[in-house]
Each structure stands twice: as structure tokens, then as C-alpha cells.
UniProtKB/TrEMBL annotation:
Database matches in PANTHER family: CYTIDINE DEAMINASE
UniProt domain CMP/dCMP-type deaminase: residue ranges: 3-98
Protein family per UniProt: Belongs to the cytidine and deoxycytidylate deaminase family.
Molecular-function annotations in GO: cytidine deaminase activity; zinc ion binding
Taxonomic lineage: Bacteria, Candidatus Daviesiibacteriota
Cellular component, GO annotation: cytosol
Protein name as it appears in the record: CMP/dCMP deaminase zinc-binding protein
InterPro entries: CMP_dCMP_dom, Cyt/Deoxycyt_deaminase, Cytidine_deaminase-like
A Pfam family it matches: dCMP_cyt_deam_1
């Protein structure tokens, strides 16, 4: 799957829906490819009290459900096809799922890919202190 195809697939997941009390879901879509070549996807769910999560979180949960942990490439896309870099929580989440994910290619703009380690130069590690 090319980068453009990944971006298009993530964009196709974006179908903003209103939940109760003005809360929303599926404002952002994410697609990832594992080191085994399998593709997983997810959408954001924006609820209150810290219960909501990013689209990357949803895609990673689907990957773990499938028994995989190593992400080769990941992208998140908003409505209108805007590619969005992962938030700090998702950066750390990818790392904590598997430290090899520091080598994950993260699409942060349409024509820009960086390694997760560039986005997370000092990941949390209780054993490294
Ligand atoms: Zn996030």
C-alpha cells in the first residue's frame, strides 16, 4: 500500500458523527501497517472525562486485538484530507506497545515521513533511570 493509498484509506474513515451532548466521533481516521504487512484502522472518539481517544489509539487497539504489536507505518487524517502528526500520548502509546516502534515511519504531512524516535526523543522508561 503506497503512502497516498494509506492517506486515502484513513480519509475514507472520517465520517464525523454527533454523539450526546455535542460530543463527536470519527472526526479523525487512522490506518497503520504492521511489520507483517497487515492493515488496521480506527477512528477518534471525542468524549469527556478522559474517556475519549485518538484514531491512532483505535487502530493500535485493533492491531493488538489481531495479536500484533509492531507498526511499520502509520498515518492519521482529518476531514478534508489533512494529515495530522500523532499527539504526545499516541507517540508514547506506540512506544509502550513495543519499543521497536521507535523505528515506525510516521506520516506527519502529505510528503513528510519521520521515525517515531524523532517525535519521541526521550520516551518514558522506568528501567532507564
Ligand atoms: Zn493521539
Amino acid at each position: 500500500m503506497t503512502d497516498e493509498e494509506l492517506i486515502e484509506k484513513a480519509k475514507s474513515l472520517v465520517k464525523p458523527r454527533k454523539l450526546r451532548h455535542g460530543l463527536t466521533a470519527a472526526d479523525c481516521g487512522s490506518v497503520l501497517v504492521t511489520d507483517q504487512g497487515n492493515v488496521y484502522s480506527g477512528v477518534s472518539i471525542d468524549t469527556t472525562s478522559g474517556m475519549g481517544f485518538c484514531s491512532e489509539h483505535g487502530a493500535i487497539a485493533a492491531m493488538v486485538t489481531g495479536g500484533e504489536y509492531k507498526i511499520k507505518k502509520i498515518v492519521a487524517v482529518l476531514e478534508d484530507g489533512i494529515v495530522l502528526p500523532p499527539c504526545g500520548r499516541c507517540r508514547e502509546f506506540m512506544y509502550q506497545i513495543d519499543e521497536d516502534n521507535l523505528d515506525t515511519d510516521v506520516i506527519i504531512k502529505k510528503d513528510k515521513i519521520v521515525k517515531l524516535r524523532e517525535l519521541l526523543p526521550y520516551p518514558w522508561d522506568a528501567e532507564d533511570n
